[in-house]
C-alpha cells in the first residue's frame, strides 16, 4: 500500500510554485514580490524583466514555473492567470566573522529567503 494522498490546499483554479533558499534578505525580496501582487501574469513578467533589482530574475523564474504548473498540471488558461499571492518567508541566516581592529571581530549575517507564488485563473466577464 502507501500512505493516503493529502487534500490539495489550493482550489481547482490555482497553481503554485516555490523557491527556497534564495540568497537575499526577506525585506528586499518582499519589495520585488510587492511589484507583482494582484497583477496579471503578462504584466508581472514585463515588470520583472525591466526591474533593476538582482533578485527580480529569480522571482521571474518562479513566476514562470507557476505558470507552467498551471498550464501542464492543472490545464488552466495561461491568458487568464493573475498573481493572487506572492508571499516571502525567512529561511535561515549564515553567520560569518570579519576581523576588525585591535583583535576584535564583527559578525556578518547573510540572510536567505523563501518565496511562494500562487497564480489563479480569472473567469471571463462578458
Describe the structure.
This protein is of the alpha+beta class. The protein has one domain: Ribosomal protein L22/L17 (Ribosomal Protein L22, Chain A). Helices cover 30% and strands 36% of the residues. The chain has three helices and three strands; from the N terminus they run E-H-H-H-E-E. Strands 1-3-2 form a three-stranded antiparallel sheet. A hairpin with a 5-residue loop joins strand 2 and strand 3. Helix 2 runs antiparallel to helix 3. The longest helix is centred in the middle third of the chain and has 18 residues. It is flat. The termini are far apart.
Keywords:
single chain, 126 residues, alpha+beta, Ribosomal Protein L22, Chain A, three-stranded antiparallel beta sheet, 3 helices, 3 strands
Write the layout of secondary structure elements.
Elements: E1 14-22, H1 26-36, H2 41-49, H3 56-73, E2 81-99, E3 105-121
Antiparallel strand pairs: 1-3, 2-3
Number of helices: 3
- Rounded mean pLDDT is 94
CATH topology call: Ribosomal Protein L22, Chain A
Distance from first to last alpha carbon: 48 Å
CATH superfamily (homologous) name: Ribosomal protein L22/L17
Label the overall shape.
flat
CATH architectural designation: Alpha-Beta Complex
Alpha-beta classification: alpha+beta
Low-confidence region ranges: none
Summarize the structure.
It contains three helices and three strands.
Amino acid at each position: 500500500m502507501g500512505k493516503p494522498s493529502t487534500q490539495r490546499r489550493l482550489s481547482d483554479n490555482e497553481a503554485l510554485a516555490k523557491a527556497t533558499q534564495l540568497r537575499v534578505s526577506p525585506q528586499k525580496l518582499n519589495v520585488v514580490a510587492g511589484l507583482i501582487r494582484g497583477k496579471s501574469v503578462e504584466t508581472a513578467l514585463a515588470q520583472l524583466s525591466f526591474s533593476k533589482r538582482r533578485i527580480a530574475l529569480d522571482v521571474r523564474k518562479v513566476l514562470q514555473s507557476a505558470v507552467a504548473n498551471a498550464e501542464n498540471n492543472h490545464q488552466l488558461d495561461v491568458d487568464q492567470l493573475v498573481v493572487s499571492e506572492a508571499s516571502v518567508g525567512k529561511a535561515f541566516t549564515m553567520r560569518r566573522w570579519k576581523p576588525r581592529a585591535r583583535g576584535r571581530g564583527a559578525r556578518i549575517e547573510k540572510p536567505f529567503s523563501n518565496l511562494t507564488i500562487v497564480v489563479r485563473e480569472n473567469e471571463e466577464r462578458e
